[in-house]
Amino acid sequence: MSIQIDLLDKRALVTGVSSGIGAAIAKVLAMAGCDVAGCGTRSADSPEVAHFHQSVEQAGRRAFYLQADLRDAVQLRTFTTQAAKCLGGIDVLVSNAGRNVFRGVEGCTEADWQDCMELDLASHWRLCQATADNLRSGRSPVIIIISSNHAYSTIPGCFPYNVAKAGLTAMVQSLAIELGPMIRAVGIAPGFIDTPGNDVWFQSFSDPAAERLRTEKLHPVHRLGTPEEIGAFCAFLASNHAAFMTGVTVLIDGGRSALMQDSSP
After folding, report:
1. What is the total count of domains within the chain?
2. Does residue 206 belong to any structural domain of this protein?
């Protein structure tokens, strides 16, 4: 007997679907059987949004998209309301949208701090609050919060991003305690994932290929993670195979955190 991830006819709300990890999550959930409502900062007529629609509809599922800045509570509420109406409810919430705000502790401005806390921390809480009633009416509902390996350990100059991500660990615990037993809440903390955004970071070095190779070798698996791998884990968490899993954030970093020193394993 084979084990399959079957999310047939479930309704998923995914934020940040216009690129990177969010786009892959939407695609994989659709392949598993979900209709998907997504949002992002890209306009509805952008190539990235067209790709979102295509990836979901090619799997034979319905796609809904709304441009929204999740730092704005009104836009966030509008998105969740329209998404639930379009899909007929919500069974899976993947709160993924976020942005790197990398500053030093002393160099971080009040504006940097506020911008980071609004998107990388508060928007996740507001999304959960806005969708809780719809989730309670869903089938085996689950909230999946996309965090970061920076929630566990970080490097100089990554403040206040690491602070916000550490806060998500506590948020997942509170969600599981207060929304359970009906709604599960789980976090995913990805490490270095091969996204367009991270490629821009590599391009900032004089020898991007050499820096990429150096970074890959810092991982015991000797490669970066893929957005599709994060999407696949979201599908698992949304399935009945993970029904006993709640209140925890799972680190997916290719073994990077297992190294005591920055040397090739």
Report:
1. 1
2. no
